[in-house]
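Translate sequence into structure tokens.
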Amino acid sequence: MDGAPPPTSPAGLSAYVAVSQLLGLTLLAATGAWLGRYRGGVAWQGQLQFNVHPLCMVLGMVFLQGDALLVYRVFRNEAKRSTKTLHALLHGLALVIALVGIVAVFESHRAKGIADMYSLHSWCGMAAFVLYLVQWLLGCGFFLAPGASFSLRSRYKPQHIFVGVALFALSIATCLLGITEMLLFNIRDSYSQFVPEGVLANTVGLLLVAFGLVVGYVLTRDEWKRPPLAEELALSMDFKTLTEGESPGGSQ
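Result follows.
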């Protein structure tokens, strides 16, 4: 050991990440309380199958997607390959859970004779899921699978980051539309009277916004971005030399 002090996180980062996780877990608990207390709970068969949908979408498309975005801020000193893999795995898990939620709502609608894909919520939701899947596949192809050149990865990276943040925002907006739609379907006549279910569901909506804002704040702080490690810079130059045919000291 050379006696060097272990690298530390920038001031404030750990606190904001902790707040984001507290908000995310509270969001999941509040969603479960709403569905359990006022909508009868969750089950794959029967009348309660629909409730699988909001629970899975909040868990997958919001909480896990948000945590996947935070991976590069939290794991600042781990190997880049490991960080990439964790980032991809969390997004993949989010996609699987979201798919379960989508299957649940389609099966529930079919059993009850309800039309599909007519509302703004459903349009935004399907767009978010399909684009999220495409984003995940492209990300794996460009950054995990071998073959993509250094220059191609560099050109695609800004688009990948922008689309990732945009899809996270779209997912939260779609959940807010879904909460409003669900409340108008179930308690339309009493919603304006501040009934407990409406207040709890509105609280879920506020937690969605708060979680998104904290995650977004962490992602947009330039000084909190993951710095490249020394060995990563060397490997990056070697990779560029191999794929582009340039020397490490050549012009860019």
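Note: The mean pLDDT is 90.
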